[in-house]
Amino acid sequence: MKIAYLFDRPLPARETDSEQALQTIAAFARQGARVSLIVPATANSVRSPEELARYYQVEGDFELINLPAPVGRISTARKWWHALTARRHPAVEAADVVYTRNFPTLFALAGGTKPFAYETYRPWPDQFPVLKPFFRAAMRSRRFSGAILHSHFACERYRALGIDAERLHVAHNGYDPRRFAAREDPRTLRARLGLPLDRPIAVYTGHINATKGLGIVLDMARSLPEVLFVLVGSDGWGAVEYRARRFENVHIVPWQPFTTVAEYLLAADILLQPPSKVPLRVVGNTVLPMKLFLYLAAGKPIVAPDLPDMRELLQHDQNAWLVPPGDERAAIEAVAHLVAQPALRERLATAARETSEGLTWDARGKNVLAFLEKHR
User: Fold this and answer.
1) Are residues 143 and 9 in the same domain?
2) Helix or strand (DSSP H, E) at 334
């Protein structure tokens, strides 16, 4: 199968959607698909697929096509320019299916002549009701191959929009097993990373900003001074970083290469998906963040919010410890309980790693390609 993957952000980038796109493309390629990635170009864009693959630490042969972006500094204009320009590229004309995770591109492809597929984690029509007729029209097009949704929660929101259930396919994200192949002893990893050997450590990885609900993690740190809270993924000094300076037991780590992120996960006692209400207000739901798949694969106890999307993979007191979102006291008690119960931590960790089996990028790529073959 020939796939033209249209992505509207210049690469490389540190945003999670770019990592997800490259993991998906590489997985398609490893499953035998011929993929052309078409992106807007800037002065900082990489020029070869090999260089891009090295940046994201993925394996798989794909074609990289950089289109000049005359409106590259204006995000909305760039997205629409790329959507309307890229759909006419020869690589698109030669493709069996055109694939995107950007809704301006989805709308543009609906007016084209090629079969197209859309991937998303967000219930956009719920968040922006003005877009409902545009999504409905695009996803009812006779050329629409289908939507690949990251959660059953998101799938149900598009079904409620009136989209044919046969064209909606849930494919949870995944992880790369190579990043956990070594599984060095946590004490060895802590020594390498400069972390204490004799202190409980709770780790969060991902973008560090207030929209990720990290305020509640800092509240937890204030109440649990014996625990070191390590937040990995800072891009500079923001509200979270400034507030964290008050706490001796909060360690802020800059953005790290993907393999180093895995080392922090393996060095931890507890992994944190902030049980905050902030993602509910900002996104409408937390919609199964990609870090969750790494957390499961790391085989560590996870503290997370008790939300519908989380319950697609996590079960309280079986492979994770779930707390009501926004309940600071419950979150503090959860971490304290896990710190005091090594047998419980071990049981949750073993179940978490077992849950991760089959949730690899290769398994997902095979799954999605089978769906596209059926509906193109």
Assistant:
1) yes
2) helix 328-340
Q: Is the pTM of this model over 0.85?
A: yes
Q: Longest C-alpha distance within the chain, in Å? A: 62
Q: Is the pLDDT of residue 127 over 90?
A: no
Q: Which helix (H) or strand (E) holds 147?
A: strand 144-149
Q: Which pair of structure tokens corresponds to residue 119? A: 């991937």
Q: Do 26 and 14 touch, CB atoms closer than 8 A? A: no
pLDDT band, residue 288 (cuts 50/70/90):
confident
Same domain, 116 and 258: no
pLDDT digits 0-9 by tens, 337-355: 999 999 999 999 999 999 9
**Taking a C-beta distance cutoff of 8 angstroms, is the pair 270, 202 a contact?**
yes
End-to-end CA distance of the chain: 10
Measure the CA–CA gap between 166 and 171, rounded to whole angstroms.
14
Phi and psi at 41, nearest 5°, equal -105, 145
Structure-token pair, residue 267: 């060095």
